[in-house]
Amino acid sequence: MSYMQKKLSLLNGRKYYKFFKRAIDVIGGAVLLVIFSPIYFTTAIAIVLDSKGPIFADVPERIGEQGKKFKMYKFRSMIENAHHLLRTDPRFLKLYHEYKRSSYKLKKDPRVTNVGRFIRKHSIDEIPQLLNVLKGEMSLVGPRAYYPDELENQQKNFPQTRRLVSKVLSVKPGITGLWQVSGRSEVNFDKRIAMDASYVNQMSLWLDLRIILRTPLVMLSGQGAV
């Protein structure tokens, strides 16, 4: 193997994931946190003024690398205790059934606040996940981080995805990823998992850079957001 081939092999697949991806996450996460700091503080103030509740969403843990659970940081875009109310409040029973039928996404969700509608459309609610990246729980680019009940129920609905789920959980979830820049919430679970598994198979510095460069356009356009 030539010197150039060796260098390229280090920027692809598992070698890239093991030796370089974490360094890129730490440097990139820190830089982005500084760049987005004005938006970060402006959004926090807007959330406080708009509705009652904490700045960050109070949601259950997500499933990360190797099935390890972690607390994901997101700006609150819904009413207080929205996640719990959806599953326990009789007023939301019909909405919860629709939520499960629609791959755990709702196009018209009455729990979303006025500020929440805007920050969700432009993915501003995701900015605090840079803290998860710096903590080593997430990556800048990777598969979606799922709720435990979401992952369990969706595999029952799409049993053919079980093999792909194992591959997806072999790496850290990302703030952005292949499915996020390819339709976001318009993509159903089976196709989403297939995209994420494809990302793991093709993982490289070049693929990560392409996804990162496509992400701002998706954020600005609000394409596929709910």
From TrEMBL:
- Where are its TM segments located? 23-49
Residues covered by the Bacterial sugar transferase domain: 21-220
A Pfam family of this chain: Bac_transf
Q: Name one GO molecular function term.
A: phosphotransferase activity, for other substituted phosphate groups
Q: Which UniProt keywords apply?
A: Membrane, Transmembrane, Transmembrane helix
The family classification in the record reads: Belongs to the bacterial sugar transferase family.
In Swiss-Prot or TrEMBL terms, this protein is called Bacterial sugar transferase domain-containing protein
Organism, scientific name: Candidatus Roizmanbacteria bacterium RIFCSPLOWO2_01_FULL_37_16
